[in-house]
Amino acid sequence: MKWSDAYLDQQRFNTDSEADDLVARLFSAGKSAELYAALGWSPAQLLQEEAHPVAQFVRKARAQADWLEPKRLMRSRAFFVKYGLEIMFLLGIVSLPFCYAATPGNKALYLSDKMRKQAAKRLMDTASFVMAVLSPGSWENGSALLAINKVRLIHAIARYYLSKQSAWDKQWGAPINQEDMAGTNLAFSYIILLGLERSGFTLSKTEKEDFLHTWRYIGYLLHIPEELLPGSLGEAYVLTEKIKTRCFAKTEEGQVLTQELIRFFQSQLPDWQGRLLPYQMQVFLGKEVSAYLGLAQHPIWTPVANAFTEFKNIQHSFFTKSESFPALLRQQAYIKGLPLSGNT
User: Fold this and answer.
1) CB neighbours of 36 closer than 8 A, spacing ≥ 6?
2) Most buried one in 100, 128, 184, 310, CB count within 10 A?
């Protein structure tokens, strides 16, 4: 079996050794402040500092995969321009909660105080990454590669700290391990496609396969093993169900993370939309995953959320989708202006 339990068990102890080695080396040399400072540099600075080890790392491109089809990346960017606003909405109410349901992977988020106390920042960082890898021109100007390699270092820093905490049980595997990374990649690709279709949009097989192909390449550049990067929608379904069977469960960590995310959204939305939001999550996540996350059914709001979703589905079925990218850019500008410190 391609994704046997034995294989996936092994991947729970595997990480990105190249990023881990650089972080460990810099911390051992007392250069943690230098590392954090470099991660905040602009793309121009990272390109100028030729000798700096962090700049060298984030500029380094992995050998091109022999299965990569650049034209499919181009088509996916057009897809993102068309559906960008909807993709970002689904990222917040479906993809992140989907990741929170996976344990023990969700413990890495739960045990990180910075992430637990800053739902707004976590959402903004995730959205910024997706924008960096899917926006038009991001591959041509090099910003996509820089963003991907920065994330590799951020993950390595988190692993460095979490692995030293007494609360981290080594039987869980490594923090942010390769199986969890594969699940996150699916949450940002395959689960998004399911969410768009649940929203009533009619997607062609080519559009869906191209979007999955793009995230396969992003995962490859994140140094996720190629065996964990599905090459088709059928494979994506099989691996998603396998990870759900292995990892999804009802946990305090998943419920706390989900409630913090909901509270942030509710603080930004009109009252009625905020009340509806948890039940919209249920519509997209399904009863089983919703139950894991502590999202209870409601005699009034659950039917309202279902009716609201079906109404939007009808709208999306009858009206041609126009580009949502300009609206997405305005939304991102607004989110960047939000205060990101303290509990949310």
Assistant:
1) none
2) 100
